[in-house]
Amino acid sequence: MIKSSLFAVGFASIVASVASADMIAQWDFQTTTNGGTAILAAPATQKLFVANFGAGSLYLDGSNGSSNFFEPATGTTNTEINGFSGTTLNATGSMSTVTTGISALAIVGGAASVPAGTFGANGKAMVFKFSMSGFSNLAVSYAVQRTASGFTTQQWDYSSDGTNWSSAATITGIQASFAGGGTNVVTSLGVASGLDNAATAYMRVTFSGATSATGNNRVDNFQFNATALPAPGAVALIGLAGLVARRRR
Predict the structure, then answer these.
(1) Tens of pLDDT along 39-59?
(2) What is the pTM of this model?
(3) CA 43 to CA 29: how far, in whole Å?
């Protein structure tokens, strides 16, 4: 009985470790202690952001399937990216809770274009690149708000090669302020098994629906979490546990 109990405890520990969620990458656009990128205001806003925690990069420079977001040499006229104040929503662990100053990424409408009523950043996409090697069940969460003339839709897609993309989620109903929570924090964006154990993984966000040059979406505190796949030894022990259980019955 004691041996059986000890075996059951050990098996439960294995299952718990297999099922636990792990942080893949986080972007708070502020923390630099781990080599992450701290955002600057336009016209110096970066087009490449190294993850502030974990490992990964966010591209807005035309590489890795992203669009090259316009930023003027001086000033902010018609800029498509900028840095604004942020939020504490979805900031956990060691993520920064400073909300003042330049602490969140803004995707901005940009210059008016043809046909009339459309703006430069509509249809442009930013791309996250990271690794899912040894992990499954990717879940993404982040804080988001929009101005009245900002983007109404964020289309999320995923890829394991940066070329072929599949739909993950369409985000609409974005609220006008970080205050109040609610749908400002998107917590239900999952990728099922599409990126499980992918050596290189990509998540693309395409923005649409802006109706002015300064209309924007502000995003902050991205979290990419996943479930660690069991090591081969753990899989063998789980199989052994099932065999022992059948024999006992």
Answers:
(1) 999 999 999 999 999 999 999
(2) 0.86
(3) 16
**What's the chain's length in residues?**
249
Which residue type does 75 have?
Answer: G
Where do the structural domains in the chain lie, given as residue ranges?
21-230
- Decide: 223 and 92 in contact? Cβ < 8 Å: yes
> HSE of 42 in the Cβ direction (CA atoms, 13 Å)?
21
> What type of residue is 247?
R
**Through-space distance between the first and last CA atoms of the chain, rounded to whole angstroms:** 14
Could you write out the DSSP letters of every residue in 37-94? PPP--TTS--SEEE-SEES-EEE-BS-TT--B----SSS-TT-SEEEE----TT--TT
Query: Are 184 and 171 in contact, with CB atoms under 8 Å apart?
Result: no
Q: Cα dihedral sign for 142, 120, 159, 63?
A: negative
Run of H or E including 216: strand 216-228
Look up residue 226 and give its two tokens. 């996943």
Q: Among the listed ranges 167-176, 203-212, 226-235, which one has the minimum average pLDDT value? A: 226-235
Mapping DSSP to helix (H, G, I), strand (E, B) and coil, where does residue 218 land? strand
Q: What is the dihedral of CA 214, 215, 221, 227, to 10 degrees?
A: -130
Class of the CATH-defined domain 21-230: mainly beta
The predicted pLDDT at position 113 comes to 81
Backbone φ and ψ of 184, nearest 5°: -65, -30
Q: What is the CA radius of gyration of the chain?
A: 21
